[in-house]
Design brief:
Elements: H1 3-28, E1 44-47, E2 50-53, E3 58-64, E4 67-72, H2 78-88, E5 94-96, E6 101-104, H3 110-147, H4 152-185
Antiparallel strand pairs: 1-2, 3-4, 4-6, 5-6
Helix pairs in contact: 1-3, 1-4, 3-4
C-alpha cells in the first residue's frame, strides 16, 4: 500500500478515535441517577474575570449516591460557583451554607429519564456526523491521490478500508448509546 494511503488511513483513524473520546466525555456529563464529579465538567466559573473550570476553583466530593459537595478554595468563590451551576442548567439547585455548596440530585422521574435518553441519542448522532465527516475528508484525499496517479484498485481498497473503520466506530457509538440508555432507565 502506498505511503500516502497509509498516512490518510492513520489520520482518519486518529480523527475518528478523538471523535469517540469526545463523545464518551459528553456521555459522562449526562446524569444517570448517581452523583459523579464528572457531571460538573464543562461548568465554567467567573474567577476574577476569567472563565475557569469548576474543578480548578473548588474541591468536588461525592457524599452519597445523590449528593455532591463543593468546597471552594477561596470562601469568596461561593457566589460565583453557585451562579455558574445555576447558569449551566443541569437541573440541580445548589444549596449554599456559607462554607460549602451541596448539590442534592432529585430522583429521576420517568419523563426526565426519557429526556436524558433522547439527549444521549442526540449526542450519539452528533458523534456519528463527526465520524462521517472524517470519512468524507479521507475519501476526498484518496480521490485526490487517484488523480495524482494512484491506481483504481488501490483507491477502491483504501476506500473500503476507510468504510470498514467508519462502520466500526459507528457501531461503537451505538453500543455506548445502548449502554447509557440501560444505565439511565435502570430504576
Amino acid at each position: 500500500m502506498d505511503e500516502n494511503i497509509a498516512l490518510i488511513l492513520d489520520i482518519a483513524r486518529d480523527s475518528m478515535k478523538k471523535g469517540i473520546q469526545h463523545f464518551e466525555t459528553e456521555l459522562t456529563k449526562i446524569r444517570a441517577g448517581k452523583a459523579t464529579p464528572d457531571m460538573l465538567n464543562g461548568i465554567m466559573v467567573d474567577y476574577y474575570g476569567n472563565a475557569t473550570p469548576l474543578h480548578q476553583v473548588a474541591n468536588v466530593n461525592v457524599i452519597d449516591a445523590r449528593t455532591l459537595s463543593l468546597q471552594p478554595w477561596e470562601k469568596n468563590m461561593l457566589q460565583p460557583i453557585e451562579k455558574a451551576i445555576m447558569a449551566a442548567n443541569i437541573g440541580i439547585t445548589p444549596q449554599n451554607d456559607g462554607v460549602q455548596i451541596r448539590l442534592f440530585l432529585p430522583p429521576l422521574t420517568e419523563e426526565r429519564r426519557k429526556e436524558l435518553v433522547k439527549r444521549v441519542y442526540a449526542e450519539g448522532e452528533n458523534a456519528k456526523v463527526v465520524i462521517r465527516n472524517h470519512r468524507r475528508e479521507a475519501m476526498d484525499q484518496i480521490r485526490k491521490e487517484q488523480k495524482d496517479g494512484l491506481s483504481k484498485d488501490a483507491a477502491k481498497e483504501a476506500e473500503d478500508e476507510i468504510q470498514h473503520i467508519t462502520d466500526s466506530y459507528i457501531s461503537a457509538i451505538d453500543k455506548h448509546c445502548t449502554g447509557k440508555e440501560k444505565e439511565i432507565m435502570n430504576v
